[in-house]
Design brief:
The chain is α+β, with helices and mostly antiparallel strands and 412 residues long. The chain has three domains: 158 residues, no CATH class; 96 residues, ACT domain (Alpha-Beta Plaits, 2-Layer Sandwich), CATH 3.30.70.260; 115 residues. 44% of the residues lie in helices and 19% in strands. It contains 15 helices and eleven strands. Strands 1-2-4-3-7-11-8-6-5 form a nine-stranded mixed β-sheet, sandwiched between helices. The N and C termini lie far apart (68 Å).
Length: 412
């Protein structure tokens, strides 16, 4: 019965598969990777069944999936797994692309949410891949694949009673690059043409270095998907996961030259990025104005930090603008992630729990170092972030999200 149901669900009604049927079709190719392929296929068919019915589609869909599972004759335990698959089908993608996976609290929260169910974790990992592949060819990117599999592997390690790996130490290449910066006092750049591609940037530590590095990458048509930041002595080392917007990776000598000019004041990134944005702006009238950016503050349930979510329309140099605004507000960015979404994007940032926070009536909160800000909660930094995001260039149609963790900048 289950096989017949799955065949009917995945059979195209015309010359091509519909969006509804493509998820089970993609899931069918992953059935040998899970212990319960029947639950994977039915869960893939039902995971978005709650859309268009009002409320959170995951919560609405859970109730409907339970009813369908009972009608299909699944045992009670399997019905519960089906409902949980629908309820939590976004848990792994959202956590992997928005949270610090090296934080044990992040992994513990996922395992606790799933009730310690290893089967459910396995099914959700496969469902996340099938859902992304069916959404579009670029959605299941090497970056997203690596993050989700890393999160799932960390959860499996916790379930098996193994100790979670600690923070990833700097690579030998990053350490060597930092040594070259300390010796010469000039920025250094190293490219990794892997899949996904990477760029390691080492510069003498100072406020504004992340914004400078991110802006130079944008100037050379590199999209940043994630960034890990470390300090080795007096050197800031940024490890970016990137993909070229066009063609291949740029010459590292050009990146190093432009970064040196930016840090020395010989190249104005805002002006250069504005020119690039104008050059790539679509011709003709704009049908609809872009959605206004929005800044939200809330508590990170995994780390206890205060979290900033910034939603804005994607544009060239977005990470540069956000990093510049945060650094202007005395925040030192520690890690960053981007998540694509439509039609908007969001940036998340968290200050460590030691920072003081005050909550406004709207539920937003303001982090600062030991004193209450002169303006209302979140007003001043929210205005700074919004000002950085505002611009005259036309935004791109794609949108993205970043997760950023910050601590107070000590440089003045």
């Amino acid at each position: 019965m289950r096989c017949a149901t799955c065949r009917r669900a995945t059979a195209p009604t015309s010359g091509r598969s519909t969006g509804t049927s493509s998820r089970p079709a993609r899931s069918a190719r992953l059935t040998t990777r899970v212990a319960r392929p029947d639950l994977l296929l039915v869960g893939a068919l039902l995971h978005d069944i709650g859309k268009g019915r009002g409320g959170d589609h995951s919560e609405v869909g859970e109730s409907l999936a339970v009813q369908v599972g009972e009608r299909l004759g699944f045992p009670d335990a399997d019905v519960a797994v089906l409902g949980a698959m629908v309820r939590h089908h976004l848990l792994l993608p959202h956590t992997a692309t928005r949270r610090d996976l090296e934080d044990p609290a992040t992994v513990t929260r996922v395992v606790d949410t799933l009730g310690g169910n290893g089967l459910l974790l396995e099914l959700l990992e496969a469902l996340a891949e099938a859902d992304s592949l069916a959404t579009g060819p670029g959605v299941w990117s090497p970056w997203k694949r690596t993050l989700i599999h890393d999160l799932a592997n960390r959860c499996r390690a916790l379930l098996a009673g193994k100790s979670l790996p600690g923070p990833t130490p700097p690579t030998a290449a990053a350490t060597e690059l930092a040594g070259a910066v300390e010796a010469a006092g000039r920025p250094q750049v190293l490219l990794d043409p892997g899949d996904p591609a990477g760029v390691v940037v080492a510069v003498p530590y100072r406020c504004g270095s992340l914004a400078a590095a991110a802006g130079v990458l944008a100037l050379h048509s590199l999209e940043v998907h994630a960034a890990e930041l470390a300090t080795l002595g007096g050197v800031a080392v940024f490890t970016f996961t990137v993909s070229p917007r066009f063609g291949g990776l740029p010459d590292p000598a050009l990146l190093r030259s432009d970064l040196t000019r930016v840090l020395d004041g010989g190249l104005s990134l805002p002006e250069a990025l504005a020119r690039k944005e104008r050059d790539y702006a679509p011709r003709g009238p704009v049908a609809d104005p872009p959605a206004p950016a929005r800044v939200l503050w809330f508590d990170d349930e995994a780390t206890g930090a205060v979290v900033l979510e910034l939603r804005g329309t994607d544009r060239i140099g977005l990470l540069h603008r956000v990093a510049a605004a945060l650094e202007d507000c005395r925040a030192d960015v520690r890690w960053a992630k981007r998540r694509r979404s439509a039609p908007r994007s969001s940036t998340r940032s968290g200050w460590p729990g030691a920072a003081w926070s005050a909550h406004s009536g709207s539920g937003s909160s303001w982090p600062c170092s030991g004193r209450r800000p002169a303006e209302g909660p979140a007003d001043r930094d929210s205005h700074a972030l919004m000002a950085r995001l505002a611009g005259r260039g036309h935004p791109h149609s794609a949108s993205r999200a970043l997760s950023v963790r910050e601590s107070r900048c000590e440089c003045g």
